């Protein structure tokens, strides 16, 4: 079998993809660089050589997740530049559930001084982008994010999305309240 050597950019992307999976499963505190390395099929020292630390790997992963969410919203805005248009993109985001879960873990870890600024910047960039794409007011954007956070949490709990659990009565009641 002939092995193709990956470029540095391809290897970086491979490691971040593995980190998305690992951090979505275990969060920041519960994930090791060894777990990421095993998922990527590389050695743990290689992960550290590329990123320097678990913290930098996590930050790269959060940035990747945030950039992917922003790209999905940009694509949606090209078709329908309204909050409703961006809201419809949540179906795609739920299909890429690990991205949303990584962002939730980032928000939860934001009290860590080494993570907080970057996580808040990621959130702020998303807020600003939604306003720029849609022309929505700060209040309308806040409501969009409030609904989006609810959808994100429901997706993380597998109440929504392609791998949703069988619904319980409370789920149906709550889901009926979401914007269509």
Automatic annotation (TrEMBL):
Source species, domain of life: Bacteria
Domain spans labelled HTH tetR-type: 9-69
Keyword Lipoprotein assigned: no
GO molecular function, one term: DNA-binding transcription factor activity
Keyword Chloroplast attached: no
Key words, A-Z: DNA-binding
InterPro entries: Homeodomain-like_sf, HTH-type_TetR-like_transc_reg, HTH_TetR
Residues of the DNA-binding region: 32-51
Gene3D superfamilies documented for this protein: Tetracycline Repressor, domain 2 (1.10.357.10)
Official protein name in the record: Regulatory protein, tetR family
